[in-house]
Amino acid sequence: MIDLYTAATPNGHKVSIALEELELTYTLHALDLMAGEQKEPWFLAINPNGRIPAIVDRAEDNFAVFESGAILIYLAEKTGELMPADFKGRSQVLQWLMFQMGGVGPMMGQANVFHRYFPEKIQPAIDRYQGESKRLFRVLDAHLAQHEYLAGDYSIADIANWAWVHTHNWSGVTVDDLPHLQRWLAAIAARPAVQRGIIMPPRVERTDPTTIGTMLEKGQSR
């Protein structure tokens, strides 16, 4: 049994999708990020960084794992699924996973802040982060022109990147001119496990954009 501590964010959805794909039994605990639950002492004992998602594997002496990328690797290695066994194949998956962790997620996250939430429109910042997000999308599109998935078979690399890229409209970045990326987005969106994982937990609508912007600036998920 795995306890998943999460919220309705791209980083949270990475893990709920992976759990659904792997058909692992889990209990979902939705944290209220606006209320600061992720900074409470009980959660800091699980994740000292105070961000979602995090898991506790009850079958492994209550072993806690934080950081979404680390969780994906842990689950893949635990089950022997969504990650090749050979070292070259594993390296390819990890390369594209790190591409998301170090590039796609941070750039789109900043695009969200400045495009959607920042109290004033700072156009150079908006252009910077939307432009870098689009550049990364072009890298994905070029790679996907020659590959069905990012690293051989469908893997945690696809899950991690898809969880962010499919929200491109929210970041103000189009993919209309990226046909291979569009094909990949649609193929993954059609997977039943993805459709189950993307609604875990249900999204809570907020009406205070200033509060949301403050939360995103501080970075409440990884």
Task: Write up this protein.
α4 runs parallel beside α6. By secondary structure, this protein is α+β, with helices and mostly antiparallel strands. It starts with a strand and ends with a helix. Strands 2-1-3-4 form a 4-stranded mixed beta sheet, with helices on one face. It has helices at 10-22, 41-44, 68-79, 87-117, 123-144, 156-165, 168-171, 179-189, 192-197, 209-218, and strands at 2-6, 26-30, 54-57, 63-66. Residues 206-219 have low confidence and may be disordered.
Task: Give a topology summary.
Blueprint: E1 2-6, H1 10-22, E2 26-30, H2 41-44, E3 54-57, E4 63-66, H3 68-79, H4 87-117, H5 123-144, H6 156-165, H7 168-171, H8 179-189, H9 192-197, H10 209-218
Helix pairs in contact: 1-3, 1-6, 4-5, 4-6, 4-10, 5-8
Quick overview:
Residues 1-83 form the GST N-terminal domain. With 222 residues, this protein is α+β, with helices and mostly antiparallel strands.
